[in-house]
Write a structure and sequence with these properties.
By secondary structure, this protein is an alpha/beta fold. The protein has helices at about 5-15, 65-75, 105-110, 120-130, 145-160, 175-195, 205-210, 240-250; strands at about 20-30, 40-50, 55-60, 80-85, 90-95, 165-170, 195-200, 215-220, 225-230. The strands form 2 sheets. A 6-stranded mixed beta sheet has the order 5-6-7-3-8-9, sandwiched between helices. The relative contact order is 0.19.
């Protein structure tokens, strides 16, 4: 793990000088009327730029359009006005709120599903099973896994493709805090060894501070960008609850409308 101090912000700034950023411009995203439900404007006039190998958390109130924005970035929803410019090469890993493992496939087979069926893939899967602490459950079916372990498999499935862009939609929600904390630390350790550009949706301000180098504060729907907050914590501070709480308290003391909600 890198040394404490100002090393991490400096390292991430240096990384920002290589490769292309993720650029997102959403002029308008509207859901059409369905039955008695009227049309709904979900995202409007929102522009984001995520530095190469940077970690941006999307933070805002429930229902503000965070997941919709992530799906627009992923290319899962192309019905919008605007542009998304992915980093090159655009290998996208997506970790959903639910693990979305195929229950009729083993842990190993769920990883194989996203790779070519060749000897090189088998070697890569073997390495990721070991790195993510899954070697002992490789032949287990998802229904036999705890939620925390299933989410570990989902992380491995996202990383096994060697993503240049990793999209994560509240991947640690509904877990007990101890399990969520272990997975957050696993994510940070994995990104230090295998860097990627990350966009991470969360409604947990402490989680955003622990993981991200920048936090995008979004308005209630239709989502607009209110502010970008830099998180200057060093690696050791990201494992220190007191350092995280100090920065959280400092943020909540700022005049930032996007933080006027439970953190």
């Amino acid at each position: 793990m890198p040394a404490a101090g100002a090393a991490e912000p400096a390292a991430r700034a240096e990384q920002a000088g290589t490769g292309a950023p993720l650029r997102v411009t959403i002029r308008k995203k509207r859901f059409p009327a369905v039955g008695d439900a009227p049309a709904k404007l979900v995202v409007q006039d929102l522009t984001l730029e995520v530095r190469p190998q940077g970690f941006m958390a999307l933070f805002g109130p429930s229902g503000c359009g965070k997941t919709t924005l992530l799906n627009l970035i992923a290319g899962l929803d192309r019905d919008f006005e605007g542009e998304v410019a992915w980093p090159d090469p655009a290998r996208i890993g997506y970790v959903f709120q639910e693990p979305r493992l195929l229950p009729w496939l083993t842990v190993e087979d769920n990883l194989q599903l996203v790779l070519p069926d060749d000897p090189a893939s088998a070697v890569r899967i073997e390495a990721w099973l070991a790195e993510m602490g899954l070697a002992d459950v490789r032949a287990v079916y998802p229904t036999r896994l705890s939620l925390g372990m299933a989410r570990r498999v989902a992380l491995a499935r996202a990383f096994v493709i060697r993503p240049s862009l990793l999209l994560m939609d509240e991947p640690f929600v509904s877990l007990d805090e101890a399990t969520a904390e272990r997975l957050r630390r696993l994510l940070l350790d994995t990104l230090r060894a295998h860097p990627a550009t990350v966009v991470f949706v969360t409604h947990n301000l402490r989680e955003a501070i622990m993981l991200a180098d920048r936090i995008a504060l979004l308005t209630p729907a239709p989502a607009r960008l209110q502010a970008i907050v830099e998180v200057p914590l060093a690696p050791a501070e990201r494992s220190d609850p007191l350092a995280i709480e100090r920065f959280r308290a400092e943020l909540l003391g700022r005049d930032l409308p996007g933080l006027r909600l439970p953190g």
